[in-house]
Each structure stands twice: as C-alpha cells, then as structure tokens.
Amino acid sequence: MNPETRASLLLRVRDPADQAAWEEFVEIYRPVILTLARRKGLQAADAEDIAQQVLVAVARAIEQREHDSQRARFRTWLHRVAQNAILNALSRGKPDRATGNSTEHELINEHAAVEGPDSDLLRLEHRREVFRWAARQIRGEFQPATWDAFWLTAVEDRPVDEVANRLAKSPGAIYAARSRIVRRIQEKIAEYEQAE
Predict the structure, then answer these.
(1) DSSP label at 95?
(2) Each residue's pLDDT tens digit in the chain (196 positions)?
(3) Distance from C-alpha of 169 to C-alpha of 165, rounded to nearest angstrom
C-alpha cells in the first residue's frame, strides 16, 4: 500500500471517481467535526447534521479550491466551514425564542473564535484522528502480541511489567515492540503530513 500525503489526498478527493480518497478523508475529518460540534454544545444528532453539512460543503468546494501553500492551510479553511455551520445551528431561532437579544449575541460571539480553544481543539482532534488512521494503516504489519504490547503500554498506559506478564514477554521485548510501532506510526504520520 502506497501511503498518500495530505496534499495528494486533497488532490485525489477532487476526483469524484476516487471513492477511496473520499472514504479516507471522511474517516479522518468526520470525527474531528463531530467533536468540535459537540464541544460547542450541540447534541449528538445536531452534531451529526453539522458533520454532514460540512462534508457536503467540502465536497462541493474542494473541486474549485486549488492547493496553494500561500493560502490558508486546509485545516484552517475546514475549521471556518465547520465554525460557520455550527454558528448557523446555534443562532437558528426556534419559533418560540426571541431573536436579537444580547444574551444570544454573547453566545454566538463566544462560539466564534477563529484562534484559541476552538483552533486548539481542531488541531488536537485532527492529530488524534491522524494517529488513529495511521495505527489502522500499519496494524497488519505486526504480530498481534507485538501490537498488544504497544497498545496496552503506549495507548492504554498500562505498566510495562503488567503487560510483560500478561503477554509472557520480557519487559525489554515490550519496550522494543512499542518502540518499533511508535517509530512506524511516526513514519506514517510524517508521510501523511509531508506536504503541509
């Protein structure tokens, strides 16, 4: 399997016939959008709607959006699209709710930050999803016991001695397995983000 860099994925997503590129894109970015929407106070169903709206907007706009390193990064653009969709959902008035009062404006302004906690959240969630994606991509390269040594100690943060006993391995073997997989995940992430 030839890993795609982020820039090449964006180019591939522009081709409506490349279903694999779109599936990979959705696999990485949909959870990011959902998390951002839920952190803004939207219920799960509303967050799902927002994610769908943002992905549709991306699908429509991606064909016209040229990759240009001088322009804003893709994540910045995606954050703005998601932020606008969330703001629209938060500011949509219900029939029995008054509009235009200062409390509502404060709520909208509170949720409108382009930099700060929202941007930090988007970056963090993106990194988590890229990590999960990279882990899924390389998992088949390792024996189950090697993978378990990594996952239990590096992700679940279990003590090395406990995992060594559980897997009937030496602590050194656990460290070695973890190190190999961490290095491979870092390589996969670097390949993915190479063009950023």
Answers:
(1) T
(2) 333 445 667 677 777 788 888 888 888 888 888 888 888 788 888 888 888 888 888 777 776 656 555 555 666 777 777 777 777 777 664 443 444 444 444 444 444 444 555 566 666 677 778 888 889 999 999 999 999 999 999 888 899 999 999 999 999 999 999 999 999 988 888 877 764 4
(3) 6
